[in-house]
Write a structure and sequence with these properties.
Blueprint: H1 2-36, E1 41-56, E2 62-76, H2 98-126, E3 128-131, H3 143-147, E4 154-158, E5 161-162, H4 166-179, E6 183-188, E7 194-199, H5 211-215, E8 228-231, H6 236-239, E9 247-251, E10 254-255, H7 259-267, E11 273-280, E12 283-290, E13 292-296, E14 299-303, E15 306-308, H8 315-321, E16 322-325, H9 332-355, H10 367-380, H11 382-400, H12 408-421, H13 427-456
Antiparallel strand pairs: 1-2, 3-16, 4-5, 4-6, 6-7, 8-15, 9-10, 9-11, 11-12, 13-14
Helix pairs in contact: 1-2, 1-10, 1-11, 2-9, 2-11, 2-12, 4-9, 9-11, 10-11
Amino acid sequence: MFEMLNNGVHNTIWFIVAISVLVAFHEFGHFWVARRLGVKVLRFSVGFGRPIWKHTAKDGVEYVLAMIPLGGYVKMLDEREGAVAAADLPRAFNRQPVWSRIAIFAAGPLFNFVLAIAFYWAVFVVGIPDFKPILAAPVAGSVGAAAGLHEGDRVLSLNGAEVQTWSVLRTDLISAVLSRQPATLTVVDKAGTERELQLDVGKVRVDPQFLFDDLGLDRYLPPLPPKFGELIAGNAADLGGLKSGDVVLAIDGEKITSFQQLQKIVASHAGESLHFELQRGSETLQRTVLVGSLHTGGITRGYLGAASARMVNEDKMWQDLGAELRLGPVAAVPAALQQTWGMTRMVAQLFYRMLVGDISVKNLSGPISTAQAAGSAAKAGLSVFLGFVAFVSLNLGIVNLIPIPVLDGGQIVSCLIEAIKGKPLSERAQVLVQQLGLALLVLIMGFAIFNDIARQFG
């Protein structure tokens, strides 16, 4: 219980750090462009609700840090919100030309993309710890198996683009499946022979819950002995009577030869009971364990809460599989731009697939899942956390460009309608549109929070 509470606090702290940075930069985009275009800014707030800190600068701008860090706003002088002195009328937001208002609305999402580029640049300079793109044996009957891939094949390129790490391969495969592009892999086998293979991505479901199951691909890991190391108190393994040092001989009668085999069986039996045959010292024991559930990225997998007992002589094997992508400050610039563009395309494709029903809305994540991801990324190291913040910044920029009235994208569409008509929408129409937009946004957030809660309780 204490560990769960500690993890919750850890996740919350890093979530607040990440979201506060993203919101502050997003709102700074609106603030900076508004001021450059001559609009008077009254308040710059990071967060909503009761202020926990505020300061009024010499130029009259009130800077606020508020209690709820799930957003922010820039309040500008506007005749629609109160009386404006005659001398200040030229600086009122509502008096600005349509294209100036569009620029102010677009600046927030644009700054999120700029921030993503900056963080991806930092990730490449710091270095990304990863694994070489070496494949495990593809699942029988999968697309990977049908293409002729084998255990130990190392992927050199996908559709002509060099693949240096496993993470790059995963991202590129997801993009290929989402866009239904041909996926041509160049691989080299254990004997050093290169060959070119075609993956039939048309047979792969685009939903992230099933995509890699259909591909049948996973990274190669050296076989570890099926022996338990550390167990997390209060989790499935501990509650089922398993102990550190136990060697698993069989699960439900199936002989176990590696920890990876054990993990695959457990992962596919979330919430089910498995019968373990164990060796503990000189004894052979039987234990029935109710497998727990772990929910990440919209996917539910079985979970024991037990780590492998690592052996000293395994270190060399893991070192041989490791890879780190590190670039100089100059070379990191085009790499960051390319990464930002590639991830933006992928996120946009995921949104589109969800909109047309190819991907379940169960994949929507809310603040709980985002906080858990932030905590995990922070534990994994600086470059991983920076990459996480960059990815969330991209999502924030894209989401805000969706043409929902209360979002920046909706406001831009409203301005474009005004430009075409030659006059703004009537006040009644604006109120109605805003109410519909708010209702839609609440519905989407409700789905995301419901998914978060459902994942926590299986």
